[in-house]
Amino acid sequence: MNTETKTATNVKQAVPFFGVSNIERSVRFYVDGLGFEMTKKWVDEGKLRWCWLQHGGAALMLQEFRKEGHDSWIPEGKLGVGVSICFQCEDALAIYREVTSRGIQAKRPFVGNAMWVTSMKDPDGYQIDFESPTDVPEDTEFSEQ
Question: What pTM did the predictor assign?
Fold first, then answer.
């Protein structure tokens, strides 16, 4: 077995790690709005500092920037700009119905690249897409009948 093959088969999952401005607000969006489950967390000095959120086989991590004291850092520019995460799922239309019923503003699903796609922005501007395969013609927009 060559080293390249061994290394490639050792990788199990890519997990986006978002720096956020307000972790409580972000957790509400992902857990209450999008249906993620918090499966791991780090609480420091009584405050949630980091968490691992799971939705089916996908995950992401959130951590709020420390604004004061040791290890403080405030990023330059607006968070989330240019960052897009695409979650592949069985039924993006079901996700769209579910999250909009919870008050999340999601873009009307459309077909692009042979997939239904619905998108939303999290509180810091990260773009979250849910996509599922379809044989519906390209550029078709979803409408409830």
Answer: 0.88
